[in-house]
Amino acid sequence: MKTRILQLTAALLLGGALAGCSTVGGSFYTASYSSVSDAGYTIPAIPREKIPAQFRRQIVNYQTNEKPGTIIVDTGTKFLYYVMPNGKAMRYGIGVGREGFGWSGTARIAMKREWPTWTPPAAMIKRQPELAKYRTGMQPGLRNPLGARALYLFNKGGDTGYRIHGTPEWWSIGKSMSSGCIRLMNQDIIDLYDRAEKGAKVIVI
Hints:
The protein is built from three helices and 15 strands. The chain is an alpha+beta fold. It has a domain at 95-204: Beta Barrel (L,D-transpeptidase catalytic domain-like). The longest helix is centred in the first third of the chain and has 18 residues, at 2-19. 29% of the residues are buried. Residues 1-26 have low confidence and may be disordered.
């Protein structure tokens, strides 16, 4: 009897988890991109129909030798994969560095920050003098380039200067236009932030 109850409970929980998802081509679309209230900020809804289907957050089949919890960034396809058990991954659409600002390699998540302060590097200020006013940091908020969350990437040499972060510019997903960082829609970076552990391996290819 107890086993039957547990089976029914599991079935109900699974049904509830999938109720908000639609299955398309074997992938579960898990994101509604509705408005989100978070830490006193209201992140605007994103018009889902304007996001190309492949760049919406979804669970996909993904074979890799990397262990669950690893993040794999494919800059060519503009996808970020959060490796899950049993040959699955949560896939997110991303924006990547424009020509001359791309990078690749292996790093780890050294820090995680909610609603981070953005401080443009000296090289960026030199290219864009109008950013000098943020030399000591731009306060968190809906217009902050790092968005709602940031994952700070370090390697053996220390801080790489690169981040996986949110962006209010949802229309930039799927494009090469950042200064090398990996950007996700704010609703997606919140989801990834909650999954990713400090110290997690990040592979950029």
